[in-house]
Amino acid sequence: MLKQIADAFEHHDYQTAARLIKQLLKQEPNNPWTQLYLGRLQEVRGKLEAAERIYRQLLKGTPVPKIMAQARQGLARIEATAKEQRRQALVQATADPESNQLGVLVLKPISQQDKPTAAQHLARILGIDPYTARLQLPTRGWRLYRTGPVGELKYYGSLLREASIKCLWAAIADIKTINIYQVKYFSDSSDQETTVVCHNSQGQLGSFSFNWSEVTQRVEGRLPLFEKVVDLDARRNLTRKTQTLDYAMVCDLHLPQRHSILRLCDRNYQFQQGIALTPKPVSSHNGQSQNSRIHQSTTRANWNNLANYLKLRLREKPVWSDFTTFAQTALDYPDLLEKLESHIDLFRLVETPWDPAFQLYSGLVFFD
Q: Taking the complete model, does pTM exceed 0.70, yes or no?
């Protein structure tokens, strides 16, 4: 019967091969040749995953050289077929000119328990080895995984979602369409409606009124403030290095119905203007003197008052606060971040990718 099955495959008579394999499975289900031909049948039927499993099992548990050689040939055919299918799908996915816009693909965190299975799927979809795939899967927060044509990223993202790997993708051009307003202070506020004084993207000062119900979520982040310092190395030589002096606190309010984000920052929010916060905003003046440490502590106290006020108004709205974890992966893509305007007005001697990284993070949350 094995000779008949081999002849059927050689003449592409898969119906006869299927009938004979069915009989053989009843008679000798554990025969390695039976399993080999079953794998071949699954392969020609397009059930590549099932065929791959059978071939790999044969390689692990069958010492017969001829069977091992044919199993390896089967795996090679499957890999070539899958590669061609991916190529054709990518051509189709990037056929639309808009699909060639620059985009990003972000992996969402996965549990340690699900990581081994997810790594196998990620390896299969992207054509990488499982060990590398496992290292690339995040467990704590979002990971900026790939950049490239958004149509290509959408294709891979769809396959990842089908494999229960949570992810998102977005075009940089779409993130740039969000209206960003840098809030100077709340000029008026009630239980339903409030008004802020703010700068728009063109730097024009004006007012913006909205209902608290329009805010769907908050996004919080800390942006490091750097300074150049002179230090002594191990050989007592003077060296210059950059260190983190402090952090600027940023909070975005998302209003998707207005396609807008209201951005607050503790370094430029005018705490002495507008509505009274509870408790009363702390003054940073101490007689005629104002040293840096007092200024930092009063700024932080005032920011905490503002944060508590927002929590009270938006107590049922979700808060996204894992920016730092995401930023540590986004900083690996400086060319991408250079294409984004940060819309964060901080005094910096040297530009830093941290600012556009927050703009990217908040924009991705906006579209998620």
A: yes
**276 pLDDT higher than 90:** no
205-236 exposure pattern, b = at least 16 Cβ within 10 A, e = fewer: eeebebebeebebbbbbbbebeeeeeeeeeee
The helix/strand/coil state of 172 is helix
- Outline which parts of the chain fall under CATH 3.30.1390.10: 96-174
Cβ count within 10 A of residue 273: 12
Pairwise CA distance, residues 4 & 14, whole Å: 12
Contact indicator for 214, 196 with CB cutoff of 8 Å: no
Tell me the CA distances in angstroms from 196 to 218, 228, 265, 319, one per residue in order: 16, 36, 13, 21
Phi, psi of 173 (to 5 degrees): -60, -35
Which part of the chain has CATH 1.25.40.10? Answer: 2-92
* Residue 294 pLDDT exceeds 50: no
Indicate whether 265 pLDDT > 80: yes
Q: For tokens 């606190």, name the residue.
A: 249
Domain 96-174: assigned CATH number? 3.30.1390.10
Omega before residue 116 within 30° of 0, cis = no
- Give pLDDT, residue 199: 97
Tell me the CATH number for domain 2-92.
Answer: 1.25.40.10
